[in-house]
Amino acid sequence: MLRALALPLLAALVFAAGASPLVGSARAETASDAALKTLLHGDGALTVGGRTLDRALLTQLYDAHDDAPIWTGAPGRIAALDAALAEASAQGIDPADFAVPRRASPAERELLLTDAFLRYAAVLAQGQVSSAAIESDWSIQQPRFDAAAAFDAAAQGEAERLLASLAPSHPAYRRLETALARYRAIAAAGGWRRLPETKLQLGDSGPAVEKLRQRLIAEGFLPADSQGPEFDGDVDAAVRRFQAQHGIAVDGTVGHGTYLALNVPVSARIEQIRDNLERWRELPRLWPVNRIEVNAPAAWLTVIERGEPGLSMRAIVGADDHPTPVVRAWMGAVLFNPPWRIPDSIVRKEILPRLKHDPHYLERNHYVYVGAPGRSPMEQLPGPDNALGRIKFELPNIYDVYLHDTPGHPLFSRVIRTLSHGCVRLEDPRQLALNVLGRGKTTWSLQDIDGAIADGDTRRVPLAHGIPVYLLYWTAFVDPEGTVEFRDDIYGRDLRLAAALAARNAEDRLNPAEQPAAASLSPALSRNKTAAK
């Protein structure tokens, strides 16, 4: 059921054109108008063409327009909606979800067209599924959607322009759209075949190398005219590019991990891109030009300054049983030589069992009770062995996760870096501290940062201005140069999103007997598009 919420950008677009020309017009009521009123103001569920509609919302919308139809007798508006829906597939949205049945009276068709328009507008404006509703650790809310403002726009003949304004305009979203088209083209050309697992590396030769070449050609890592049974320098370079773009150790050797990625079918890659396009639609439309982003599946932090990526570094993120949440928070201070207030769950599940077998475990790891032993919080004292390292970046949030240093720097050499309890450990926290502390009037240098660490005392340095930090989840993304990258669905969020989308689509999809002959709302337009292909 659609929710009438507010979207300032939408309202600004909708109300710019003035009042609807249908309101207050001196038009004679037709039999179709009377039938429309009967449908709107009846009792019980409003089921039309096999679909249950939101009677309360539709009645409210049409009442504001004197119960006048906005689609009946306006073929241009229907054509504009049809043209907009024709673009749905390019954004990973199935136009069939918004199909209008062929067997419907004019009044029924009027309501079904409005329903299709509003549902599609809502999908563009805020996505089909709220991840906050299916995830326990997702606190970035969907954009708001104003159904009344959208309906007013359609009544003014602005449906197509309105729909074009609702999807994310972020370049990363548009690049994913391009990637979707590219991988659909690969699928149309036959995709790629599964490779038998045989370890291959530079200097090898034989039929297995020829099959590897064909696989790399299919995804564009080698040119179409590349041939031969030799694992030569070109194949080695292509394999390394493939590994880099899939988060695999870049060594040129085609081993188990590389085969796992090579053998993901193109259909799964298409679905992965669609899931990430959907995820983009439920995120904010306005992003601060200065911010910090962490992509958990890539285990990577990027500082965005003036809208462009700057400082970046490897990160360690939560293990699969302690996932890093999706959250927006504000970094407010840098803490040098931080103590670690240990969560009760870690004390109970990890520390106390070890203490039973090792009475000196607390002393050796510099753990102390803050108050009466056993009945108060436990802390780890500041120092080189502290789990937070020497620097902590404070960003208050409901999950109590933050960015911090770590004494375990060798772990950053690992390709899979899902190792923490949910917080984000940083490869080079000194550089991030230099970046965020250098934004105020007080100048900080690396020498100042090292001096604050060497002092040994816990020191909190507030930032001149809070910095927004986004902990995000992208398993498919495209860099500004057009390089498409994929990462594993480390926490199963893609899987849960796909299941929720399938359930939502099953509800939205009409009974097959009610489906129109084509997805087009206009039979004439459908014929034209078919002929043009």
Strand order of the largest sheet: 3-4-5-13-11-10-6-14
User: DSSP helix count?
Assistant: 19
Measured as a percent range, the helix fraction is 25-40%
Oligomerization status of the protein chains: single chain
Major beta sheet summary? 8 strands, mixed, barrel
Measured by DSSP, the beta-strand proportion falls in 5-15%
Describe this structure in words.
The protein is α+β, with helices and mostly antiparallel strands and 533 residues long. The chain has 19 helices and 16 strands. It has helices spanning 8-15, 31-40, 55-63, 75-86, 106-126, 131-134, 147-155, 159-166, 171-188, 207-218, 233-245, 256-262, 266-281, 344-357, 361-364, 429-437, 446-455, 493-508, 523-532, and strands spanning 46-48, 51-53, 291-295, 300-305, 308-318, 327-336, 340-342, 367-369, 378-380, 391-394, 403-404, 418-420, 424-426, 459-472, 476-478, 484-486. The strands form four sheets. It has an eight-stranded mixed barrel with strand order 3-4-5-13-11-10-6-14. Residues 1-26, 515-520 and 522-533 have low confidence and may be disordered.
